Amino acid sequence: MKVIRLIMAALMAGLAAAGCSSNETEVIGKPQVEVVDGKYTPEIMHQMGKVSDPQISPDGTKILYGVSYTSIEQNKGVRNLFVMNIDGSGNHQISASPKSISNARWICNGSKILYLKEGKLHCCSAEGKDEVEIAVEGVPAIEAFELNSTSDGIIMQISVKYGQRAKDLHPDLQKVEARVIDNLMYRHWDHFVEEVPHTLAASIKGIKDGGAIAVENVKDLLEGTEYELPALPFSGLEQLSFGKDAIAYSCRKLTGRDYAFSTNADIYLYSTGDGSTKDLMAGLEGEFPGYDTEPAFSPDGRYLAWVSMARGGYEADKRRLMLLDLSSMAVKELSCDFKYNVDEYVWSADSRKIYFTSCVNAVEAVLEVDVEKDCSVAYTPAADERTGDVILGNGVRRITSEDCWYDFSSLKLVPGNEGKLIAVNASMMRPAEIVSIDIASGAVEQLSHENDELIARLATPSMDQKWIRTVDGKDMHCWVLYPPEFDSTKVYPAITICLGGPQGTCSQGWSYRWNYRLMASNGYVVILPNRRGTTAFGQAWCEQISGDYIGMNMQDYMSAAKYLKAQPYIGKVAACGASYGGYSVYNLAGVHNGLFDAFIAHAGIFNQEHMYMVTEEMWFPTWDNGGAPWDNNPVAVRHYTNSPHKLIKNWNTPIMIMHGEMDYRVPVDQGMAAFNAAQMMGVPSKMVLFPGENHWITKPQNSVLWNREFFSWLDQWCK
Predict the structure, then answer these.
(1) Per-residue pLDDT averaged across 639-667, rounded?
(2) Residue 663 annotated to the active site
(3) Considering 584, 663, 685, 703, which one is annotated as catalytic?
(4) Which one of the listed residues 57, 448, 579, 643 is annotated catalytic?
(5) Checking CA distances to 504, which of 5, 267, 339, 582 falls within 20 to 30 Å?
(6) Secondary element (H or E) of residue 366
(7) How many CA atoms lie within 13 A of 471 on its CB side?
(8) DSSP string of 164-198, one letter each residue
């Protein structure tokens, strides 16, 4: 192994000398992974290459993308750049930097690449040579950027100061350590809000004439405000779109308590000519009190599309695809008769269609919609949802097939080839790879093969989907994974996965946190119920969970577990989940009546009354819980009366609790209270806390430990 490391170091040093890199030579490259008897481990999982952000060259012949490699020993990962031909051939690495390279984009008609490294813009040739740093005067660290279609305009995300520090209020106390707070939203997910994102717009010279590249005329779209652009914590520059003489952007222009209780984000138009801004929603027919996000101008400039939620304060409302004719200012919903959510989307080159992804019956599929469709009459699909044979709506066509069990994302249309899309897809069996999609036939071809060789050496679990009958006679979709070399004459322990959210879907995604292939590879049958509250089966199935946390979805989990226990090859069954899934575990611990043999809760809500007063995004519990703990309406009273902490006398099943101490969404004292209560009741229990982690466990060594503790606990009580 030492010889291999020396060879890899020499190779990376050589690439660094030739490509976009600094003078440092300690580069995290693709590791040589040892596999013993085909066993898949957490260590192997973190040594897989992480493929991301494919970008097609302007002439449509090449794909630029990034791969992150992780060093468990150094407890970090580093991302470098690769290029391949549009058909996947000629794949090669063009950078070998010891510092991560991100946000790479083609410029100068594909002869150069612009990217970020350590918060600064850099440029190199298309071959990865001749790196130079591009200074942007007066601009602090750049967190992300995007270019317009001609690459002579740029938007850049930065962080700006929010509010006043204690030392600002008391200039004579410059060493003070305190926060003075007089409003809500003072912390969010994993940080105290002392900075917020803003987006700068600027012009770039030197792109067309081949001269020195410079960024000029920098303007803050939200100058003088403390609003967020893009919105925290999940949004990026997909919230902005370049038009001919304007930039459309989504923004929730609220702060403090107003921000905490509202989801009202509008679409704004910023004039690149005179710098004026107008609220597009204010001039449209109808009301738009909910999230309005992800605007995108059509290539011909005639239309603006965006994603809209109809109701304010409800973050899991249907994601509708809206279309605005900019000449007539007429607006219509392209998803009026489409029962599922519209996730990400991209325009066709002729502006006549929109290609989009949507989670349909637990698979993130690629579809298309005709822009000229008649939206005057909406209708309800009258097909068999259970089989997946669903009428999708007028003018909507599914491109990827129903038996293509992959989740697709990062859609890009190939320039000069309007019949082909480039995307990323993943499944529970493998991480993300770049693929091409034939729009007419739906044929999918894998182009990158970053992890093929490693996965081929691993023993492979099998996977199936089941439709399980619920207590009220409905059919619930479940994915089921079986251990490698599964033998139905043997007996296996099982895991019931309790989904977070609560709105979300158990689809064909790959996770480096909750990795279901890893669970199956450790000898467990894994069932993932798409219980009430999941988003891939229509809005009625999704909405049922709001105000009924203790009801039907808990019965759905128990229906899935009873299905498992009825199989002759299943022995003991555990329930495991994170966030709302952790809440589900705490609730099930008080009501399951011996159905489960062990529990694991990560970042779960234990005391709903206390949680309401220590979380931050107040629109969420206000909607889903029916109000505050002091409200007297029947939904709120039922919800808080049945908080898991009030069922602690019923706990008698071994439980392990994990939590990140920097989790401000579900603060760590929720996990500590659950553990303390379990200990007081004499229930076998264990707690694992991560001081430097938030709602998720992200650092490589922490993740390895998390998995070791996870399987150690399950093995102790279920094997």
Answers:
(1) 97
(2) yes
(3) 663
(4) 579
(5) 267
(6) strand 363-370
(7) 14
(8) --HHHH-TT-TT-------SS-SEETTEESSEEEE
Tell me the whole-structure pTM to 2 decimals: 0.94
Nearest-angstrom CA–CA distance, 463 and 333: 37
Sorting pLDDT into bands at 50, 70 and 90, what band is 145? very high
List Cβ neighbours of 282 (8 Å cut-off, separation of 6 or more).
Answer: 266
SS percent in the chain: helix, strand, coil, step 5: 20, 30, 50
Decide if 695 is catalytic. Answer: yes
What's the pLDDT tens digit per position in 435-464? Answer: 999 999 999 999 999 999 999 999 999 999
CB-based contact 261:315 (threshold 8 Å): no
3-state SS, residue 309: coil
Q: In whole angstroms, what is the distance from residue 500 CA to residue 516 CA?
A: 15
Q: What is the mean pLDDT of residues 566-589?
A: 98
**Could you identify the residue written with the tokens 């099998």?**
462
What is the side-by-side order of every strand in the sheet holding 214-220?
A: 144-147, 153-161, 195-205, 214-220
In the predicted model, is pLDDT for residue 651 greater than 60?
A: yes
At 191, give phi and psi (nearest 5°).
-150, 150
570 in Cβ contact with 491 (< 8 Å): yes
- For the question of residue 403 being annotated catalytic, the response is no
Q: Which among 549, 604, 554, 610 is positioned nearest to 577, based on CA atoms?
A: 604
Nearest to 61 by CA among 94, 87, 86: 86
* pLDDT tens string 657-688: 999 999 999 999 999 999 999 999 999 999 99
Q: Which two tokens stand for residue 138?
A: 């007066």
Give pLDDT tens digits for 4-36.
333 333 334 334 434 454 445 689 999 999 999
* Predicted local distance difference test score (pLDDT) of residue 79: 98
Question: Per the structure block, which two tokens stand in for 653?
Answer: 């099943």
Do 266 and 307 form a contact (C-beta atoms < 8 A)? no
Q: Per the residue annotation, which of 46, 188, 198, 695 is the catalytic one?
A: 695
Q: Name residues whose C-beta falls within 8 Å of residue 586's C-beta, 6 or more positions apart in sequence.
A: 601, 604, 605, 606, 644, 645, 674
Q: Which residue has the tokens 């938030």?
A: 694
